[in-house]
Write a structure and sequence with these properties.
Helix content: 10-25%
Order of helices and strands: EHHEEEHHEEEEHEEH
Number of helices: 6
Strand content: 35-45%
Radius of gyration: 16 Å
Amino acid sequence: MNYCVVDAESLPSYLRSEGSLTRTFKAVCGGFHIEQKRFKRNDPFYTRECLLLDNGRPLVWARSFLFSTHNEAIETFCHLGSQSLSERLLFASENRSTNKGASSIEANKATKGTLARGPYTFFEVNGAAPELQAAMGDEAIPTVNYGRRSQFTWSHHDSVLFLSEMFSPYAETVLV
């Protein structure tokens, strides 16, 4: 699997959306759910991998890394299971304003403070991530998939969260 960074202008508009991906999928998918595949706790580093699905069909494979010593942020992250990262930790209280190209989001009680998302990095992948490929089963793997990476930081404590998302071809048909 090879990937390269691509310019945002050449990508479908749904990839550039800064809101909750979960909220978007819930609005258009009748059987949306999240399946946590892996979780690793190695204080102060926490890793979560999950699939976003629609009636069992993979939409997005996501991997998040939390670097934190903030107890409430850690507790929320560690107990997500099949819950949405965006709804429980990132966009729990969606009150946004723009500040030099990054979104500022008033965070929920678990994160106390203002959460800022840095700009996306978009990438194009030849083939699919092994996790996404396994989830797609017998579906044909396209030659190119799109993904994005973003970083979130909290202003009132030391937490940083990195989020990578790879979109399946089915996600594009649902979101376009």
